[in-house]
Amino acid sequence: MASEDEANAAAVAAEEGAEAPEGKNWRRKGKHDKPKPWDEDPSIDHWKIEKFDPSWNESGMLEVSSFSTLFPQYREKYLQESWPIVKGALKEHGISCELNLVEGSMTVSTTRKTRDPYIIVKARELIKLLSRSVPAPQAIKILDDEMNCDIIKIGGLVRNKERFVKRRERLLGPNLSTLKAIEILTGCYILVQGNTVAAMGSYTGRGLKQVRRIVEDCMKNVKHPVYHIKELLIKRELAKNPALATENWDRFLPKFKKKNVKQKKPQTKEKKPYTPFPPPQQPSKIDAQLETGEYFMSEKKKSAKKWQEKLEKQSGKAEENKRKREAAFVPPKEKTAGPSESVKTANDNSEIADIAKSLKEKAKEFRKNKAQENVRAESYLASNEEPRPKKKKSTKSK
After folding, report:
1. Gene3D superfamilies, from UniProt (predicted)?
2. Ranges under pLDDT 70 in the chain
């Protein structure tokens, strides 16, 4: 019992940071959390990924690990053509691969020559990318240690199919300009295909994280990809300035407010009053013929009747076309004066007649006054010479 009490006391003392009694070499909690001499060494890059050396694992793998994935039917022809390239790339790392065209699957598995234990995971990502329509030369780059991939599922983010297609097109942009801008700024390869987005890049440069955020924000209608591109451009310029490298960049980044756009209200149909009885039976073609008596006609009479209806329809159409053509030559109707306008015109005519009469009287008076002023005195004096009598013309008798 005494030894148990001492052990408990020592454990409590170690937790509380108290020193152990002299002569006792008890284990202290967290004794390995001391700073190591290589932690602060500037010549060592702790984030560097060293290339695998086969001498690290000379014995190879103990068990066989294998992964398989299905591929769509439209990829069958391309995979069949490019399979020798894929097989050669995997053979260098000691991985065997199989293309099963009957089941539509690809399988990768380790062999006795496999030394790198993580290469089978890379091979699994390779066949995943190949099934998602990534070209074989690009997909083989995933076998490098510094290259990683992320397959983002976007099919379940939007329910409406039309909205899903529109938002997926936002990622592409006109002539794939938006997608190319995202690829340049993030340093990743991006392929939008069907219900997934396949991205290849590195996690150290935060490229894959940025791509996932851009894709999810676009599909959830949180932020347009163009706004993300603007932010990335600003961050790239700020990173060049050493004075702002350690500061917070929120004051430099643009803040976009989401605007609610009014959507068109769906047209609701008027609900008819509910009746438990079904609608009446519509008359069939034979019933309509029985009512008109056409059912009992001979084939000759039926064809004659159809021909007559056709002629009547043509004549009616011709008359309508003729009326439309003649309508262009019909003069417009003139406006007829109403009773109020006729009275007004009569009053105007009487005023004009009075003005004309007064002007005539003034003109007569003016002429009379002028004649009186131009009277000569010689006209009142008798002249000495008498006027000669005019000779009468002789008329000849017939």
Report:
1. K Homology domain, type 1
2. 1-31, 258, 260, 335-346, 370-398
Confidence (pLDDT) at 337: 53
DSSP-derived letter for residue 248 is -
Residue-wise pLDDT for 197-218, tens only, equals 999 998 777 889 999 999 999 9
Statement to judge: residues 140 and 202 lie in one domain: no
- Answer with the one of 96, 124, 145 that is the final residue of a domain: 145
Q: 383: which 2 tokens?
A: 């002249």
Count Cα neighbours of 108 within 13 Å in the Cβ-side half-sphere: 25
Separation between Cα atoms, residue 229 and residue 238, nearest integer Å? 14
Among the listed residues 127, 152, 140, the one whose alpha carbon sits nearest the alpha carbon of residue 68: 127
Q: Are 202 and 196 in contact (CB under 8 A)?
A: no
Domain that holds residue 220: 146-257
Q: Amino acid identity, residue 115? A: R
* Furthest CA-CA distance within the chain: 197
20 inside domain: no
Asked whether residue 103 falls in the same domain as residue 196, the answer is: no
d(CA 381, CA 398): 47
pLDDT digits (tens, 9 = 90+) for 12-34: 444 444 444 444 555 666 667 77
CA 385 to chain centre: 121
* Cβ(206)–Cβ(185) below 8 Å: no
CA distance 102 to 182: 38
CB neighbours of 176 closer than 8 A, spacing ≥ 6?
A: none
Phi, psi of 90 (to 5 degrees): -75, -30
Q: Does residue 231 contact residue 176 with C-beta atoms inside 8 Å?
A: no
Distance CA 341, CA 139 (A): 92
- pTM value is 0.55
Digit-coded pLDDT (tens) for 350-359: 788 888 888 8
User: What is the distance between the alpha carbons of residues 357 and 344, in angstroms, rounded to a whole number?
Assistant: 20
